[in-house]
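Module 6 notes. Inverse folding takes a fixed backbone as the condition and produces residue identities as the prediction. Think of it as a translation problem where the source language is geometry and the target language is the twenty amino acids. Below is one complete input and output pair. Work through it position by position during the lab.
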C-alpha cells in the first residue's frame, strides 16, 4: 500500500513539474508583439516575437540576402543593430570583423526578436521583391547540371543587373519536411525581364538541388526573392577576364551577353574549367559568340581529359591556362565564379600576374 502511494505521489509530482516547465517555456518564449524600426523611421514593422530577425523581416516582405537560408554558414544576412541586444554569438564570429562588431553589425539569422529593435539596412534592400513564377522549361545540360527557365507571374517583370542572384524557395518533399531558400545566379539577360534562367548543379544530399532536379516539373509554380548581390560589372577595365567552373558559368553568361547586347567597348576573355568533356556545356553557344564578336574570346579547358574525350582544346588546371593567356594586369579586371577552391587558386595566380584585389570580383558557390 505504501509503495503504491509513493509511486502515485511521484507520478503526480512529475506531471505537475512537467506542466510547470511547459508553461514556463511558453511564457518565457512569448515575447508578444515587437516593433522593428528600419533606417530611422523609413519603415516600421510589428512582428510576433520569438523568430529570427531574418525570418521576421521576410514575413513582412523585407528580404535580406541569405544564401544558406539562415544556417549562419554564408555570412550574407548582415544588418546593423542601432541599439545592442547582446554580444555577437560564436556562430557569427567568423563573419563579423572587429570594425563591424563595434558598429553593431550582426547576422540577422542569429538574432532572435525578443524586444523592440532599431536596425539599419542598405536602401536597395527595400527593392527586393518576392516573385511567383511558373517553370516553363527544364533542360539537362550535363550529367549533373540542369537549366531552369521561370516565367514570372506576379510581379510580371524583374529589374536586375547581370551577375546578380535570386533566392529560390524549395518545398517539403519525401522525407524532407523543411522548406529552405538557396541562392542561384541568373544566367539570362536583364533585357529579357519577364523570365529568368538559372543553371543548377545537383549537390548529392542537398535539399534545394534535389528538390529542383528531382521534384520540380515544367508547369510547376515556384517562388523566389531577389535580385541580390554585388557581382556585377564595375567601373574600369578595358579587358575583362571571366573565369568559371561548373554552374559558375551562370552569372558569367549573363554578364557576357549583357555587355555584347549593350555594345560596350570591352574586350572579354572567358576561361571555363572542367575535368572531362562531359562536364562542358554551352560549348557551341560560346564558340558561336566568339565567331560573331571580335571582342569576345572563349577558352574552355579540361584538366582530366582522356583520349576518349577527343579533346584538342586547352588542357591543364584553369589557373595554368589563365597564366598562359593573360600577360599582365594592365587595364584589366577579373570576374570569377565557382567553388571556393577554384576562386582562391585563381586569385593567387591573378595577384602574381599583377592584379590588385580591387580589380578582382567573385561569387563563391
Ligand atoms: C551568391 C551565390 C550564388 C550561387 N549560385 C549558384 C548557381 O547559379 N548554381 C548552383 O548550382 N549553385 C549556386 N550556388 C550554391 C547554392 O546556393 C547552394 O548552396 C547549393 O545549390 C546547395 O544547396 P542545397 O540546398 O542543394 O544543399 P544543402 O542542403 O545546403 O547541402 C549542402 C551540402 O551539405 C551537405 N549536407 C546537407 N545537410 C547535411 C547534414 N545534415 N549533415 C551533413 N551534411 C549535410 C549536403 O550533402 C551537401 O553536400 C550559389 C551560392 C551563392 C552563395
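Target side of the pair, the amino acids:
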Amino acid at each position: 500500500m505504501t509503495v503504491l502511494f509513493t509511486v502515485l505521489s511521484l507520478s503526480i509530482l512529475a506531471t505537475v513539474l512537467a506542466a510547470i516547465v511547459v508553461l514556463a517555456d511558453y511564457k518565457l518564449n512569448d515575447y508578444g508583439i515587437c516593433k522593428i524600426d528600419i533606417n530611422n523611421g523609413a519603415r516600421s514593422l510589428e512582428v510576433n516575437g520569438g523568430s529570427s530577425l531574418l525570418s521576421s523581416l521576410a514575413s513582412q516582405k523585407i528580404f535580406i540576402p541569405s544564401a544558406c537560408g539562415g544556417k549562419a554558414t554564408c555570412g550574407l544576412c548582415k544588418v546593423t543593430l542601432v541599439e545592442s541586444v547582446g554580444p555577437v554569438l560564436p556562430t557569427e564570429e567568423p563573419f563579423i570583423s572587429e570594425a563591424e562588431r563595434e558598429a553593431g553589425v550582426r547576422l540577422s539569422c542569429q538574432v532572435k526578436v525578443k524586444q523592440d529593435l532599431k536596425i539599419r539596412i542598405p536602401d536597395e534592400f527595400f527593392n527586393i521583391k518576392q516573385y511567383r513564377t511558373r517553370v516553363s522549361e527544364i533542360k539537362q545540360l550535363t550529367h549533373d547540371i540542369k537549366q531552369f527557365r521561370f516565367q514570372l507571374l506576379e510581379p510580371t517583370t524583374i529589374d536586375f543587373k547581370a551577375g546578380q542572384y535570386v533566392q529560390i524557395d524549395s518545398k517539403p518533399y519525401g522525407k524532407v519536411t523543411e522548406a529552405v531558400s538557396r541562392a542561384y545566379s541568373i544566367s539570362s539577360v536583364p533585357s529579357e525581364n519577364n523570365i529568368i534562367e538559372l543553371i543548377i548543379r545537383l549537390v548529392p544530399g542537398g535539399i534545394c538541388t534535389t528538390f529542383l532536379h528531382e521534384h520540380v516539373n515544367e508547369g510547376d509554380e515556384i517562388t523566389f526573392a531577389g535580385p541580390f548581390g554585388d557581382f556585377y560589372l564595375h567601373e574600369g577595365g578595358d579587358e575583362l577576364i571571366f573565369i568559371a567552373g561548373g554552374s559558375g558559368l551562370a552569372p558569367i553568361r549573363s554578364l557576357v551577353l549583357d555587355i555584347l547586347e549593350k555594345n560596350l567597348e570591352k574586350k572579354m576573355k572567358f576561361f571555363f574549367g572542367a575535368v572531362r568533356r562531359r562536364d562542358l556545356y554551352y560549348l557551341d553557344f560560346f564558340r558561336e559568340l566568339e565567331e560573331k564578336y571580335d571582342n569576345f574570346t572563349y577558352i574552355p579547358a579540361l584538366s582530366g581529359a582522356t583520349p576518349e574525350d577527343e579533346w584538342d582544346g586547352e588542357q591543364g588546371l584553369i589557373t595554368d591556362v589563365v597564366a598562359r593567356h593573360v600577360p599582365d594586369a594592365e587595364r584589366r579586371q577579373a570576374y570569377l565564379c565557382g567553388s571556393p577552391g577554384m576562386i582562391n587558386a585563381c586569385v593567387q595566380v591573378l595577384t602574381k600576374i599583377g592584379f590588385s584585389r580591387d580589380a578582382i570580383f567573385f561569387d563563391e558557390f
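Reference fact for the lab report: The radius of gyration is 25 Å.
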